[in-house]
Structures are given as structure tokens and as C-alpha cells.
Amino acid sequence: MDEARISLRIELRADTLLGPGKVALLEGIRETGSISAASRRMGMSYKRAWYLIETLNAAFREPLVEKSKGGKAGGGARLTATGDAVLDGYRRTEASAAKAAASEVERLSTLLKPRED
Amino acid sequence: MDEARISLRIELRADTLLGPGKVALLEGIRETGSISAASRRMGMSYKRAWYLIETLNAAFREPLVEKSKGGKAGGGARLTATGDAVLDGYRRTEASAAKAAASEVERLSTLLKPRED
Q1: Which residues, other chains included, contact A101 with Cβ-Cβ below 8 Å and sequence gap of 6+?
Q2: Is the pLDDT of residue A87 over 50?
């Protein structure tokens, strides 16, 4: 049987939400070095991805994502130090929350109808 | 300045998600004794509320919400013992997670651009 899981939405301010979608996008950019590759693997349009990045970049002291010009790929993107800090901070927050929630989530799971398979 | 907050989505199973919307609906029913009053105060249609309730009722061993017939109000609704347990369990999970996440969330907040006001 699958493990129960939690996901987290952090409202840093009324207008600044950090949740699974934006964080997966940051992670994709870190891993692929490209906004289009990161958005494609999430099934998200480039336009939507760029909108989310601009929103994040505007909310923090430093941008989280910067476009890199030139090089063989001719214009990839990468996380700044602040981008790394936000991504890693979210993942740590999520891990702490999941650990703290585990026993209650387990208790909630016992109330589910047993699977038929 | 506002406090940062987290909200939690618990995936008890692939097909059973418990998040802020469903939980607010359960809470509204507990407080108002009525599905229509609970959905109205959330700006949710009765049809949508009833769909969410049916989904929840089918996922757990016992229904979470039952309609009460008769009485002066002529047909309200209330939480069952399982409904109370799920609502209270979610709130406890959320509180544990928020407490565990607090210092990391605080650290993330320091990366935000200062407000102009």
C-alpha cells in the first residue's frame, strides 16, 4: 500500500505563495539548466513557467532564476544563490512538517475504508 | 507585518486528498449544522459541496457527514464521530506541521524583498 504524503503551501505573505508547483519548477531549472525543459517535463507552458518565475523574482530581495546568455546551449537558465536557498529551505520545511505530521497522518489513515484489492 | 502561514494537503491515498477546502467545509457544517449554510459562507455552490462530501463519505469506513431529517430546520446536516475525528485530526496535523516548520519559514521570510509601506 502507498504511504500517505503531505504537501505544503507556504504563504510567506498574502501575495507570495510557495507551493509544490513553483518549487518543482525551480527544481527542474536546477536540474535541466533550462526553463523550457523544466516546464516541458511538468506539462506546463513556457508562458506560465515564465510568469511564475517573474512573480518569484519580484518577491525576493534577489531574483531566484537568471537567464544565462551564450554558451553552447545558447541561453539556458539557472538558480541564483537565493534560488538555491529558497528551494532548499522549502524542502527542509516540507521534511520537518512531514516528520511532525507522520503519526497523526497514520492515525487518519486507519479511518479509511480498506481497499478492495 | 503578517505572520507567514502554512497550509497542508494530506494525500491519504492517491484518490483521497484532504486539504484546506474540504476541511473548511467540514468545519462549516459542524458550526452551522447545514450544508447550504456552510457552502454559502465559503462562496461554494451547494452542488460542489455535496460532491466533496460524497467523495469523503465514500473514502472512509463511516460517512463523515450525515443529513438529519425533520426538526424545526427541516433537514440539516452534522458531522458523525468519524467526521469529527477527521476534522480534529487534520487540525492537529496542521498545528504540528506549522510548529515544526516555523523556524525554516521564518528564515525564508528574511529573503523577501522588504515591503515598501
Answers
A1: A6, B8, B10, B93, B96, B97, B100
A2: yes
Main-chain dihedrals φ then ψ at residue B74, nearest 5 degrees: 65, 55
Other CB atoms within 10 A of residue B25 CB: 24
Contact call for residues A3 and A105 (beta carbons, < 8 A)? no
**Set of cell numbers at residue A29:** 531549472
Cβ atoms of A21 and B17 within 8 Å: the answer is no
List residues of chain A with CB under 8 Å from any CB of chain B.
2, 4-14, 16, 18, 58-62, 82, 85-86, 89-90, 92-93, 96-101, 104-105, 107-109, 111-114
For residue A4, pLDDT over 90 is answered with no
Confidence (pLDDT) at B1: 46
Look up the pTM and report it.
0.85
Task: Give this complex's ipTM.
Answer: 0.86
